[in-house]
Amino acid sequence: MSKPNNPPRTAENEAKAVARMLRVSPQKLNLLAQLIRGKKVDRALADLEFSRKRSALEVKKTLESAIANAENNHGLDVDDLVVSQAFVGKALVMKRFHARARGRASRVEKPFSNLTIIVREVEAQA
């Protein structure tokens, strides 16, 4: 009398990786997500390797994790993988205060974000 298992939320030819609590604003992280969306994984890794953005290393680690999940957990061919989805979500925002002139204070917001990358296996084109 146990509960039935949850069905998998991704398709058979997909694998995903999630990076949570990245210390970068979602707006800045979304620029890198746009950079790799829809590309083959080897091209996306090369773009992230030579990107000058600070958070490119975290995005690259997440993409490599999605590739490893596809290969080890789902048995997909790495050469046929494409970044099908890459999206960014908001996490918590730390609020801090910065001392200003004449006894005032300004609020400093330090946002965190979550990154989800889904890779899909596509058939090699002849």
Automatic annotation (TrEMBL):
One of its GO terms (cellular component) is cytosolic large ribosomal subunit. GO terms for molecular function: rRNA binding; structural constituent of ribosome. GO terms for biological process: translation. Keywords: Ribonucleoprotein, Ribosomal protein, RNA-binding, rRNA-binding. SUPFAM superfamilies: Ribosomal protein L22. InterPro entries: Ribosomal_uL22 (IPR001063), Ribosomal_uL22_bac/chlpt-type (IPR005727), Ribosomal_uL22_bac/org-type (IPR047867), Ribosomal_uL22_CS (IPR018260), Ribosomal_uL22_sf (IPR036394). Pfam families: Ribosomal_L22. PROSITE patterns: RIBOSOMAL_L22 (PS00464). CDD domains: Ribosomal_L22. Part of the 50S ribosomal subunit. HAMAP family: Ribosomal_uL22_B. Belongs to the universal ribosomal protein uL22 family. This protein binds specifically to 23S rRNA; its binding is stimulated by other ribosomal proteins, e.g., L4, L17, and L20. It is important during the early stages of 50S assembly. It makes multiple contacts with different domains of the 23S rRNA in the assembled 50S subunit and ribosome. PANTHER family: CHLOROPLAST 50S RIBOSOMAL PROTEIN L22-RELATED, LARGE RIBOSOMAL SUBUNIT PROTEIN UL22M. This is Large ribosomal subunit protein uL22. The gene is rplV.
